[in-house]
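Quick one: structure tokens for this chain, please?
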Amino acid sequence: SLHETLLTQLGFLGLDEREQAIGRQLIGSIESDGYIRRELEAIVNDLAFSQNINTSLDEVEEILKKIQSFDPAGIAARNLQECLL
């Protein structure tokens, strides 16, 4: 599946366990059309409440940028402009 493929690619980044958890949360937020429509602030809150991971918006955005470099092109975009980049 798409999510399994993305999780496999996440494993190749060499992230620590905390960053991996953030990446898994982001990948889990990707909808079937490949977009992330949830606000990153909501994802930060989910990480704090469900996984006890205190993170910043900047850190989540940094990991999101890495995920956006995965195949297929345009994955995890938040809007059409990001998808085309």
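The chain has a mean pLDDT of 95.
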